[in-house]
Amino acid sequence: MAPDVLVAMLRRRQRQWLVELIGILLLLARGGAAADEFVFPGFSSDVVNTTGVAVVTSSGLLQLTNETKEVFGHGFYQAPVRLRNASTGAAVSFSTSFVFAILPKYPDAHGHGLAFALAPSVVVPGAVAGRYLGLFNTANSTGQIAAVEFDTAQDEELGDIDDNHVGVDVNSPKSKNSTAAGYHDAAAASEFTSLSLISSEPLQVWIEYDGDSERLEVTLSPAGVPRPATPLVSCTVNLSSHVTNDTYVGFSAANGAAASSHYVLGWSFRLGGGRAQELDLSKLPRIPSPSNSEKKTPPLILLTLLLLSVVVLLLAAAVLAAIVARRRRFAEEEEEWEIEYGPHRISYKDLHGATKGFRDVIGAGGFGRVYHGVLPRSGVEVAVKKVSHDSRQGLREFVSEIASMSRLRHRNLVQLLGYCRRRGELVLVYDYMANGSLDNHLFGGAGGGGAPALSWEQRGKIVRDVAAGLLYLHEGWEQVVVHRDIKASNVLLDADMNGKLSDFGLARLYDHGTNPQTTRVVGTLGYLAPELSKTGKATTSTDVFAFGAFLLEVACGRRPMDFRDDDDSPGLVELVLEHWKAGKITAARDPRIGECNEDDLELVLKLGLLCSHPDPQRRPSMRQVVQILEGAAPAPETLPEDLECSGSLFYSNSFDEFVTEFPSTSDITTATTHPPSSQSTDEQQWLVGSVELSNVKMSASKHLQQH
């Protein structure tokens, strides 16, 4: 015999002797009485003696066998109980209840089962591994052992009724009485429900033995189901002739060619009359989950998992498609050369949210629509304009101009806050002007659907605001900025009725001290300086000319050229000159002004005529204009006769032929917070700020080159 095996046997014998010695000492300490009652809601190694492969797990489970084949395991209470009366030798009544679970390694191949056993010793002499539940060594043993078996293997040699039954064994693995596992419903005792002992679910057992009637009853149900009133197995057994005086009570299990894990979760025992205490199932340790890798999944579960997988994949695909669609929806165009303008870009997603999905329309123009919005991060109100572009020609230059214009800072200029380029359109973001365009206040009037007429005090402040902003463009910035489209519709009013110059889409920039280059002729008829037909150069002087037309427009409440009038009707300049020659220049004013400062009105009218002088050398600079308006310098002495030729120079036949070859910005419908109702296209000059991509770039350049 191998030394290690011999050592193990000696240690086992020593342990058994020690247990028996402790039992004797306990008997002596109790005056010869054995243990009579205990409750274990889980186990510890100091109260249960284990042999074979049985162990007490760290969670408190009594594990009788594992997934090893051809083994047995025992777990007995450490002290014997007195099952026979010492004086009469009659068997003593007892009651026990326990919860167990059997977890087979394979659903169709499993161990032999589990038994509650009464044995003369914690070590069962001659127990055979893999057979007879680990309690007997032959089919006809006579070892003073009684048991209630929960058999999961049918043995024809023993006459088993099936491989899922409960039986009573007395000194033999052949059952004295057995019944298929199940229980009778507590409400209807006649209704029987079958149970699978290898279901891996906890099952609860109650065993009652009456020593007087020698009646043994076994009741079984799923753990948590109330105790059935009708026992599953009932038979008469005279235990007094089959057990010793001091008997060990406990559990045994065995595995044969196939294996199961047999567990006892909790145990209650009482010797003498009365029932054993009920177990608190909530305090019992949990059984481990079956090994998924070794369990066969039922076809229904496989089908369910397959369908769930398909649903999850479809949902994932739908979510992915939604994400891709959302990204495409908010995708922006951005090229490497635009990085330097990055700080001025605003994400399309932010603009989409700011304008409520571009639904809050406040105006529409020839180049796109204008929307009211509130930026989500800052809460700033903005006007957002979508400008379509079909060609990449000049786009880089255009974005460069946007970046330059966004650096302009003056209280009388509408601030360009940023832009976004996406899918063939530019999205431009400006300060929001609550009172819309000056054009609407001048020409809306009664019945026109516009704003109320302005007083002269309001008009005088507005023209001074615009003059200050234009002076900043000409002299106050790092480059000269020629606006090229000064008119009432390009002047916006904030909440305090301060005038702000807007629309820099036609503006040209050049360095101080240099001459402007020849470029396309764009603007609005009535505001174009006559020299543009010869030079094609937009200068600060041409801006002054347009500002002069603007002054007359504000003071008289009429456009420089009204195409609804008869061809023989005088233009605005001619009209004011006629009143001046008649000695009543203030009579040319807008009749809606009412009482006003006549001197200030006369000053504005004369300054408007002076700025409209046909000779650019005779026009004042914007610095002189601001000084005159503010009273810091007197207006130059000018006679009406000095300006009489201006009208014919403005609109000679040759100039009309030149200008009509190019679209005018008077054809552009712009927007404010007060959109027009029934005005003509020329009257619908509503603006919240726009940067136009003019389609006349190339055609104008070619025409100028030809001339």
Structural write-up:
The chain has 707 residues and is of the alpha+beta class. It has 3 domains: 1-32; 34-281, Jelly Rolls, CATH 2.60.120; 433-706, Transferase(Phosphotransferase), domain 1 (Orthogonal Bundle). The protein is built from 14 helices and 27 strands. The strands form 6 sheets. Strands 1, 3, 4, 7, 14, 15, 16 and 18 form an 8-stranded antiparallel sheet that branches. Strands 2, 5, 6, 8, 9, 10, 11 and 17 form an 8-stranded antiparallel sheet that branches. β3 and β4 form a beta hairpin. α6 runs antiparallel to α8 and α8 (540-556) runs antiparallel to α10 (598-611). The longest helix is centred in the middle third of the chain and has 31 residues, at 299-329. Mean pLDDT is 79; it is low at 26-34 and 646-707.
Number of domains: 3
Radius of gyration (CA) equals 53 Å
CATH H-level homologous superfamily name of the largest domain: Transferase(Phosphotransferase) domain 1
The pLDDT mean sits at 79
How far do the termini sit from each other? 123 Å
- How many runs of DSSP E, i.e. beta strands? 27
Q: Briefly note the CATH topology name of the largest domain.
A: Transferase(Phosphotransferase), domain 1
Low-confidence stretches at least 5 residues in length (pLDDT < 50)?
A: 26-34, 646-707
Shape, please? rod-shaped
State the CATH architecture of the largest domain: Orthogonal Bundle
CATH class division of the largest domain: Mainly Alpha
Largest sheet: 8 strands, antiparallel
Number of helices: 14
Structural class computed from helices and strand pairing: alpha+beta
SS strand fraction: 15-25%
Report helical residue fraction.
Answer: 25-40%
